[in-house]
Design the sequence.
């Protein structure tokens, strides 16, 4: 079989097979080059041999001429005369023949040697130079492309656009050079047929002219010679006609490569970078593969191929595609990525990187790829939640770490895609199918809630939900949350009711699944109440989000089945305060109900190298009490020393260290380092042997506490007494013998000999 034609459209694919065909053409030209080189060598040897032969023939002719037969007798016979004359004639014949031979030697140089040397130098040499340029441009193109694809997606958009433009210009230049090189290769393949043969024909023409005695041979050869000349002329004429058509086609493809894409049995083919994961700590690498896909059989083939290593082809890998999904930029630091899943490797996605966004779109379309799921509070959304809840309560209500243990990301994404598709949602059987683990179902449900454009409890009411979680009695907190839930949009409230009812059911099985109300609050707080902006303040409010979710779970019957009190005030209502002054705490009669320490469990932590806490996911399973619970039982094995009845708490620094070293570990900033940071919400005082810490309720403390120290304090805001038991004062007033009052948010102190109540957030300890 002859050489396969080089299609111009293949220049844009630059496939391994295209490269093999190019190398076949190059090998053929190299073989032609060697042939011409050897032919030139032999031709020169032939000329030298011809000259030697001519000298020998002349010597032989002289010998014939000088030889004369002697006859016996006094006269020669006709036979002898003819014999004698023949030698002279032979000599003359050879003499004339050698003169023609010298002409032949000269004609060999002009008709054979010089044309072949010119073809080899001007045509084959030019192809070699084009090959060097092509190889150099190949190296440059793919090096720049690989460098470009390694650019982080986090760079500025302008930098990325400039890089994209540079790569696109370089790619166009590469395609231009590739097209010209392919055209040149095929031109030389055709040109050599007459450029090589025509000089040889001239050589034979001169040779047969020389051989007069070879007239019969020349006659026999004449038919072949004429036929060959006709063939050469016809080839030349066809070449001239075809050349214009080829150039026209090349220009058409250059203007729009996609319209002239060569039809084949592949739905899609081209180069992709494949992520190859390595054992830790080596990370992963990206290897270029030539990939093909047949939609009718779902067969995906990829072959590692490196242009810069001489076109080395690796082992082919074939698998049947089951799933394709687009990778969002927030899940990888590379652009243009998508995941494939093979039927023989379920749950183990292969990450691919295309050359551009347009290239990825073409692949996604060919592979029937799915875009990222867009969750909405619509009929499909309610169906998703209800199917997941039904499956969890049927199959996994007693699974340990329910909602805390996460599923495999690719499986979760695939399940969510199937559930969010109206065509496949009803076909997914979560209650009876073993294909979907419970952790995959719970993770899909959480992912759906996190994917909503706005959290279920809305950005608008986020701050209002947080306020009652920070202060007030348990009853007032429930009433405030009850009131706010009924301010939610109807769909949000309906979805929230379905979810909270389910979570309440989960918490009833806490002895088996270890998911207490507190643990569920930690898991679903950030999901249902994610802040609109990520700030330090939002991080500090995480624990209060959890409290709100706990209140919902513990009081779901009241909150969702009854209407709130129409006369209940907005949670933000407070007494009038001076400009820039904090709100004063309202006093109330009666003993404050003690609350557990779970709130401190979320924010207190020591960076102690001696602490030995086991790894956990999402929430500590050891926490068994709700932040909103009215039970006096603490969340730790023992309460921190110094924790008293009141609205603040006071703790000895040595006791704090010993207490927190036995507390569960959390992934929050160290409370001790935070305590040592100056803050208007934090006051310290030195005693004879230790430092006492006071936390203001504004930073999260909601436990009533009674001071055991007599301190001094300075007024930082003016205050006008609203009751005979309160003190009036101006900024800078110094209070003596200050103690914590049993009234939450109030202190007792003496000013100018009068003792009375002082709003705690109006003073600073000295």
Sequence:
């Amino acid at each position: 079989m002859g050489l396969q034609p080089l299609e111009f459209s293949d220049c844009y694919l630059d496939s391994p097979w295209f490269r093999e065909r190019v190398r076949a053409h190059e090998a053929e030209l190299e073989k032609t080059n060697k042939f011409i080189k050897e032919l030139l060598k032999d031709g020169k040897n032939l000329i030298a041999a011809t000259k030697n032969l001519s000298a020998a023939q002349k010597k032989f002719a002289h010998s014939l001429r000088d030889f004369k037969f002697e006859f016996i007798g006094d006269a020669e016979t006709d036979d002898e005369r003819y014999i004698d004359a023949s030698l002279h004639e032979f000599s003359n014949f050879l003499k004339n023949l050698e003169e023609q031979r010298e002409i032949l030697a000269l004609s060999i140089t002009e008709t054979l040697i010089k044309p072949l040397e010119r073809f080899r130098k001007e045509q084959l040499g030019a192809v070699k130079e084009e090959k060097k340029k092509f190889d150099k441009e190949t190296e440059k193109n793919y090096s720049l492309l690989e460098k470009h694809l390694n650019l982080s997606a986090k760079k500025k958009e302008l930098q990325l656009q400039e890089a994209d433009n540079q790569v696109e210009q370089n790619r166009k230049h590469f395609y231009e050079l590739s097209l010209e090189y392919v055209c040149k290769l095929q031109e030389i393949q055709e040109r050599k047929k007459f450029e090589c043969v025509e000089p040889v024909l001239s050589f034979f023409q001169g040779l047969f002219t020389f051989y007069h005695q070879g007239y019969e041979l020349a006659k026999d050869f004449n038919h072949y010679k004429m036929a060959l000349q006709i063939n050469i002329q016809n080839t030349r004429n066809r070449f001239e006609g075809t050349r214009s058509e080829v150039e026209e086609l090349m220009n058409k493809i250059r203007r729009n490569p996609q319209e002239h894409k060569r039809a084949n049995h592949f739905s899609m083919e081209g180069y992709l970078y494949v992520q190859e994961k390595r054992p830790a700590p080596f990370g992963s690498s990206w290897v270029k593969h030539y990939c093909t896909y047949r939609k009718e059989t779902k067969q995906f083939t990829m072959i590692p191929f490196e242009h810069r290593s001489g076109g080395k082809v690796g082992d082919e890998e074939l698998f049947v595609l089951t799933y394709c999904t687009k990778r969002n930029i927030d899940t990888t630091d590379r652009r243009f990525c998508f995941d494939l899943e093979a039927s023989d490797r379920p749950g183990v996605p292969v990450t691919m990187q295309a050359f551009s966004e347009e290239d990825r779109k073409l692949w996604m379309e060919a592979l029937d790829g799915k875009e990222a799921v867009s969750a909405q509070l619509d009929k499909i959304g309610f169906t998703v939640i209800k199917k997941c809840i039904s499956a969890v309560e049927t199959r996994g209500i007693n699974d340990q770490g329910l909602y805390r243990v996460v599923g495999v990301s690719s499986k979760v994404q695939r399940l969510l895609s199937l559930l969010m598709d109206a065509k496949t949602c009803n076909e997914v059987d979560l209650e009876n199918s073993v294909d979907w683990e419970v952790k995959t179902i719970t993770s899909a449900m959480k992912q759906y809630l996190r994917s909503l454009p706005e959290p279920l409890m809305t950005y608008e009411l986020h701050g209002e939900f947080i306020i009652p979680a920070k202060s007030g009695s348990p009853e007032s907190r429930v009433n405030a949350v009850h009131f706010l839930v009924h301010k939610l949009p109807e769909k949000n409230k309906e979805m929230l009711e379905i979810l909270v009812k389910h979570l309440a059911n989960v918490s009833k099985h806490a002895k088996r699944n270890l998911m207490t109300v507190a643990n569920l609050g930690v898991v679903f707080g950030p999901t249902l109440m994610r802040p609109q902006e990520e700030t330090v303040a939002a991080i500090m409010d995480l624990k209060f989000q959890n409290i709100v979710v706990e209140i919902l779970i513990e009081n779901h019957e009241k909150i969702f089945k009854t209407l709130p009190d129409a006369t209940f005030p907005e949670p933000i209502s407070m007494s009038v305060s001076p400009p820039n002054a904090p709100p004063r705490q309202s006093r109330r009669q009666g003993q404050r109900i003690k609350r557990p320490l779970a709130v401190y469990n979320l924010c207190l932590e020591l960076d102690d190298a001696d602490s030995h806490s086991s790894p956990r996911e999402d929430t500590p399973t050891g926490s068994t009490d709700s932040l909103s619970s009215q039970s006096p039982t603490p969340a730790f094995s023992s309460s921190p020393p110094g924790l008293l009845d009141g609205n603040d708490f006071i703790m000895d620094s040595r006791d704090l260290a010993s207490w927190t070293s036995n507390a569960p570990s959390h992934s929050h900033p160290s409370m001790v380092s935070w305590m040592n940071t100056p803050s208007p919400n934090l006051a310290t005082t030195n005693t004879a042997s230790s430092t006492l810490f006071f936390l203001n309720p504004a930073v999260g403390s909601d436990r009533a506490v009674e001071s055991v120290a007599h301190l001094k304090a300075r007024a930082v805001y003016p205050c006008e007494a609203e009751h005979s038991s309160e003190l009036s004062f101006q900024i800078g007033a110094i209070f003596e013998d200050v103690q914590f009052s049993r009234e939450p948010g109030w202190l007792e102190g003496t000013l100018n000999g009068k003792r009375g109540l002082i709003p705690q957030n109006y003073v600073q300890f000295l």
Remarks:
- The first strand starts at residue 268 and ends at 277.
- The chain has four domains: 11-252, 268-367, 379-561, 713-765.
